Amino acid sequence: MQYFENAMTESQNHSTTKLLACRVIVTLQSAGFTAYWAGGCVRDKLLGRVPRDYDVATDARPDDVMALFPRSAAVGKAFGVVVVRLEDTPFEVATFREDHDYRDGRHPDSVAFCDAETDAARRDFTVNALFYDPATSRVLDYVEGQADIEGKVIRCVGDASERFREDHLRMLRAVRFASTLDFSITQETADAIRHDAQLIQKISPERIRDELVRTFCEAAKAGDALLLLDELGLLKLVLPEVSAMKGQEQPPEYHPEGDVFTHTVIMLNLLPSPCDPILALAVLLHDVGKPPTAFLDEQRWRFNAHASVGGDMAERILRRLRLPSATVDAVSACVRGHMRFLDVPRMKRSTLRRLVGRPTFDTELELHRLDCEGSHRDLGHHAFLVGLCKEFASEPVLPDPWVTGRDLMEMGVDEGPEIGKWKKTAYDAQLEEQFPDKEALLDWLRGRILREATRQPPDHH
């Protein structure tokens, strides 16, 4: 039921946004200006997809736009870009422009205002260089973008190498569009990426991060997106630690699918689209610690402590890409903990409760399922944990501790590390359900503390 309510709300929100986007066009056209929807929203409309947003292109100058829309702000006036707000919904309105020189590999040094056809020639890919007039339902296509949508290909507008030298990030954008739209990249465009791939290293970590996260979270098959990054020579430059997984052998009895990279590709292809970023990144990086820990003994390949090493590596990778601290912490926790699921049948009840009570448990459980599906396909431990979660559903997985520090000090325990040690002992016994209530637990604990103080052998409960 909630799914349909959410879908209805999203549909209503999109309808409202679309109507407001039409109002922007009507207002500009009524004032005598040319105005169209531009770029991705046109592409998505032709594909039958719901646009993320609506951008507008016009021959109105920024001052004209701001005069027509009092609630507007010139976020890039030098480039002809104004953000217009209607009912608190922002729309980017850009004056048709021609760009000149890109010495920083990102921004044009100067722009000249122009007409729609010249504006289309400066854009990145043909499928993003279309205009649409909602007043007449007319598509304006100066670059054969409709044919490329029909052919399901990503092709640069004009000379591919020139487009990538203008803005190096376009190489990653080509991968994202191909992966999220389930298109292929034309030979000329792919060859230009391979030739200029090293330029991606000049791009800021934040811009690379945004493209990678969107690619792995929105791709129809995130594993195929990883393969495409590798084939184009980009992976070794933006994620060298992931590239290092290629060719790393694994024991065939546990990983009949192949090496670490192949295993990761399979898991990524099992992700839903769209996917939560924490899960997508945890899958991508869960075995990143295997190559640096790999050794071959007399029996098989081993990767001692690879989960711990991988967690540290994941943290460094994600901080390098400037991801939010909460995301870094969650993903690295999932990577560090993914091997503990092998031991769940032998875990004490207190340990299981702590496992299920972890803030990242839901993500870790799904990571474990995908790990199994992408290798030996034995889901026994996953089924065990799902059953355990049902058992815990009617009660707090991690209840409040019965025994407090004050209780322990009243028993004569000194403040400091001893308090923490005995609180853990008491809480473990509580989670193991060894005692019916707090008083019984306290009686047992007094005996334990007294025996340790007098060094008497413990009485096993």
Distance between the termini: 49 Å
Percent helix among the residues?
A: 40-55%
The biggest beta sheet reads: 7 strands, mixed
pLDDT < 50 stretches: 1-10
Looking at CATH, which topology of the largest domain would you report? Beta Polymerase, domain 2
Mean pLDDT, as a whole number? 88
According to CATH, what is the class of the largest domain? Alpha Beta
Strand content: 5-15%
The CATH architecture designation of the largest domain is 2-Layer Sandwich
Summary of the model, kept short:
The chain is of the alpha+beta class. It contains 23 helices and 13 strands.
Describe this structure in words.
With 461 residues, the protein is of the alpha+beta class. The chain folds into three domains: 1-146, Beta Polymerase, domain 2; 272-398, no CATH class; 405-454, no CATH class. It is 52% helix and 11% strand. The chain contains 23 helices and 13 strands. The protein has helices at residues 2-30, 40-47, 62-68, 116-121, 145-151, 160-166, 170-181, 187-196, 205-218, 222-231, 235-238, 240-243, 260-269, 277-285, 290-293, 306-320, 325-337, 349-356, 361-373, 380-392, 405-410, 417-431, 438-454; strands at residues 35-38, 55-58, 72-76, 81-86, 89-95, 97-100, 110-113, 131-133, 138-140, 153-154, 184-185, 294-296, 301-303. A seven-stranded mixed β-sheet has the order 3-4-5-2-1-8-9. A two-stranded antiparallel ribbon has the order 6-7. The protein has a two-stranded parallel ribbon with strand order 10-11. Helix 13 runs antiparallel to helix 14 (277-285), helix 16 (306-320) packs antiparallel against helix 17 (325-337) and helix 18 crosses helix 22. 34% of the residues are buried.
